[in-house]
Write a structure and sequence with these properties.
Helix content is 0%, strand content 47%. The protein is built from no helices and 10 strands. The strands form 2 sheets. It has a 6-stranded mixed β-sheet with strand order 2-10-9-4-5-6, with no helix packed on it. A 4-stranded antiparallel β-sheet has the order 1-3-8-7, with no helix packed on it. The termini are far apart.
């Protein structure tokens, strides 16, 4: 059974940094395009960053230039380095395959709060 375990969230001031980690079980990251998603309070889940086979990364406009997605295939972990955080980055962050939808298996996520 596939499970995703996200960690690394917390409270940070605007302009600060956090590094999120994802450790899947029953799932090998390097076989798939994978991504970080986030869900702000009262909003739908959205893509935060994606990394495809071969290591090509993609970011939406909101996170481009501030977030960096990476994966360690040997350790089977996915990371998200978030710099210059803004209050609008607040939300719960999840990892999953790039094509995941509401019917997919999701982890508990890790909460990020950006506030002074």
């Amino acid at each position: 059974q596939v499970q995703f375990v996200e960690s690394g969230g917390g409270l940070v001031e605007p302009g600060g940094s956090l590094r999120l980690s994802c450790e899947p079980s029953g799932f090998t990251l390097d076989y798939y395009a994978v991504a970080w998603f986030r869900q702000a309070p009262g909003k739908e889940r959205e893509l935060a960053a994606a990394i495809r086979l071969g290591g090509v990364a993609n970011y939406p406009t909101a996170t481009k230039g501030r977030f960096t997605i990476s994966r360690d295939n040997e350790k089977n972990t996915l990371s998200l380095q978030m710099d210059n955080l803004k209050p609008e980055d607040t939300g719960v962050y999840y990892c999953n395959v790039l094509w995941a939808d509401s019917d997919s298996t999701w982890g508990q996520g890790t909460r990020v709060t950006v506030s002074s």
